[in-house]
Amino acid sequence: MSLRSIPILCYHDVGTPGGHPAELFEAHLAQIQRHGWRTLTCSELLDIIQGTRPVPERALMLTFDDCHASMWSQVAPRLCRFKFHGIFFAITDFLGKGPVRHPAQMPPPTKISQALRLALRQRDYSHFLRASEVRAMVDMGFEVHNHTARHQGCFIRPEVQGQLKDGAHWALEGIYPYPDPRFPVLPVGSAYAYDGFWPQLREGAVEFVRRSPEERLRFCLEDLTRSRQRIAELTGATAVWLCWPWGHFDALSTRAAHESGHVGAFTLERGPNAPGTDPFRVHRIGVGRTKGVGWLSWRLRMHATSLGARLFGKHFRKPGDAPDGLPITVELS
């Protein structure tokens, strides 16, 4: 058993309101370089966990979820300057059209939650990478893989927590067909990992109907197949990886990831990435948006060994669904 493990860091938007501050992100890269770390590709990771390549010392991976426009304006230039490899996960339905933008042509920095709302409600994809920019990232030597077609959310439990007017989660833009401040808000999670409770609008009420596992499997296969094919088309990759929205997954969604042609999947579980790791259960360390270089150094030290990664591990435990599939009706006030 290898004593070494590969730490994999997960970032989101950089240089946006509420995102990773650009100066702090650059400080992270400088700290990584200062301590002699090198960055790996997905192909190298697969060889390591399949046991055909030794686990190198001081090697890590830098991953970035959602393909927010800041990946082009803020992240890629810094990675190039530090000569680091980056792995990006794109929501394929949100990849816009048009030529590669100059940094001066990028939209004003926008919170990722607002960018997702605009994409889901108005089909305004300006705050995400364009397809041309994905190709440019690949030409620069980076990797772009799959983060599903729509990052679809669903209601995961039949517990009313408020109304839409109360400042609801951005994912509700993709759950309700239109906004109404009276619509009830329930706990939100991944539509890939949960059957979910889906709103059916009635006169003066909303009825929430639980989706069957068979319906979820069909949804997952359609979404994951379509998005994988889009990534392969844009990047020319024959081996496409998947990154789970919210880090949520289960046996059914993992089956769909296999059957849709992915070679592996990244989670937000923490644990060792070493020979014997399941390629469909790759572990990552979520980087908090205010975490400093001291936190980063400590995390890398802990997760560079299999023992440390286990000691500071975290498993995703999916809460149970409601005990039955009876529709639940909420009257609109």
Write the layout of secondary structure elements.
Layout lengths: L7 E4 L10 H13 L3 E2 L2 H8 L9 E8 L3 H13 L4 E4 L21 H11 L8 H9 L3 E4 L6 E3 L6 E2 L20 E2 L2 E3 L6 E6 L2 E6 L2 H23 L5 E3 L7 H9 L4 E3 L18 E2 L6 H11 L2 H6 L16 E4 L2
Parallel strand pairs: 1-3, 1-14, 2-3, 3-4, 4-5, 12-13
Antiparallel strand pairs: 6-9, 7-8, 10-11, 11-15
Helix pairs in contact: 1-3, 6-7
* Class by alpha and beta content: alpha/beta
Mean residue pLDDT: 95
Kindly provide the radius of gyration, computed on alpha-carbon positions and rounded to a whole number of angstroms: 20 Å
Number of domains: 2
- The helical percent reads 25-40%
Q: Predict the CATH topology of the largest domain.
A: TIM Barrel
Which CATH first-tier class of the largest domain would you pick? Alpha Beta
Could you characterize what this model shows?
With 333 residues, this protein is α/β, with parallel strands linked by helices. The chain folds into two domains: 8-152 and 215-311, TIM Barrel, CATH 3.20.20.370; 153-213 and 327-331, no CATH class. It contains nine helices and 15 strands. Strands 1, 2, 3, 4, 5 and 14 form a six-stranded parallel sheet that branches. The chain has a three-stranded antiparallel sheet with strand order 10-11-15, with no helix packed on it. Strand 3, helix 3 (70-82) and strand 4 form a beta-alpha-beta unit. The chain starts with 7 loop residues before the first strand and ends with a strand.
